TrEMBL record:
PANTHER family: HTH-TYPE TRANSCRIPTIONAL REGULATOR (PTHR30126), HTH-TYPE TRANSCRIPTIONAL REGULATOR GLTR (PTHR30126:SF40). This is LysR family transcriptional regulator. Keywords: DNA-binding, Transcription, Transcription regulation. PROSITE patterns: HTH_LYSR. The keyword Magnesium does not apply.
Length: 293
């Protein structure tokens, strides 16, 4: 027979402090018959009486007096463990996210998570840094960059600039340098897209349509890339949401279809599954993504 030592000791301590089974059961917040059964089970387990039942009051036997300090320590330890468990459940899960996520988008994701008793703490990082943060256990999980066809979330990309477009798509070949003497227009790749499945594909198109190497280049930061676009006829590779945030006009590329792909990488598989199952749509909104599955 398995004995509930914690429940029995809690009843034992409460009855000893109250001096009666009825009052002790009330302190332990259990019915009096339950308190009596738990204490009786403890007595059978130990093979000795804890209380002298020949009087109206619940008086401890010598054996009960010897066992009471240990029972109090066990109850106190159980209470501390319950408290620690509640604190652990409220400890935030550190999540590495793209630097492209805005404060509002992250706040909305955090708010949605809290309604599900999931508490998040965000760390913005670049695409190469995010999986490394998981590996070094600086974060518990990360939204990592993957090819769009492999990701749970997909963000279509195009180019955006300050001039209102007249066509439905933009072709990189139109940037070929002519004889006008004007400075060549450039296409800037922001750091989030400095990954092989986006950057290298753009470079191949650049080379195939005869653009100069410097006409499609990786910027040091999104801010630097946007500044270059604001001050010239240059273009920024970005999502529709980023274009709207920056006040730029967006077009898809004509020669190639580009998209960011994102997946969850986590130190524990259960963390990744928890985020996928409970916050799939909210993460999609934060990334500005189309859900692919």
């Amino acid at each position: 027979m398995v004995v509930d030592l914690i429940g029995g000791c809690r009843a034992f301590v409460s009855v000893s402090e109250a001096g009666s089974f009825t009052a002790g059961a009330a302190i332990a917040r259990i019915p009096q018959p339950v308190a009596s059964r738990r204490i009786a089970a403890l007595e059978r387990h130990f093979g000795e009486r804890l209380f002298d039942r020949t009087t109206r009051r619940a008086l401890l036997t010598p054996f009960g007096q010897d066992m009471l300090p240990s029972a109090k320590r066990l109850v106190a330890l159980a209470d501390a463990m319950e408290h620690d468990a509640q604190r652990a459940k409220l400890r935030p899960m550190r999540l590495a996210v793209p630097e492209t996520c805005t404060t509002r988008e992250l706040a909305e994701l955090d708010a949605a998570a809290r309604t599900l008793d999931v508490f998040l703490e965000f760390r913005r990082a670049g695409p190469r840094e995010r999986p490394e943060l998981v590996r070094t256990q600086e974060v518990r999980a990360a939204l990592t960059a993957v090819p769009a066809e492999e990701g749970g979330w997909k963000v279509p990309l195009g180019v955006a600039g300050g001039t209102r477009p007249r066509a439905s798509s933009f072709y990189l070949e139109t940037l070929r340098v002519g004889r006008s003497g004007r400075p060549p227009r450039r296409v800037w790749i922001q750091p989030e897209d400095d990954v092989p499945h986006i950057r290298d594909r753009l470079f191949r198109v650049r080379d195939s349509v005869g653009l100069r190497p410097a006409q499609v280049a990786v910027a040091d930061s999104l801010t630097a890339a946007a500044a270059a676009v604001f001050g010239s006829a240059d273009l920024l590779v970005c999502s529709t949401a980023q274009a709207a945030e920056l006040g730029l006009d967006w077009l898809p590329l004509g020669e190639i279809r580009l998209a960011r792909g994102f997946e969850i990488t986590a130190g524990l598989g259960e963390d990744a599954q928890r985020l996928r199952a409970r916050l799939w749509s909210d993460i999609a909104r934060c990334l500005g993504a189309e859900e692919t599955t």
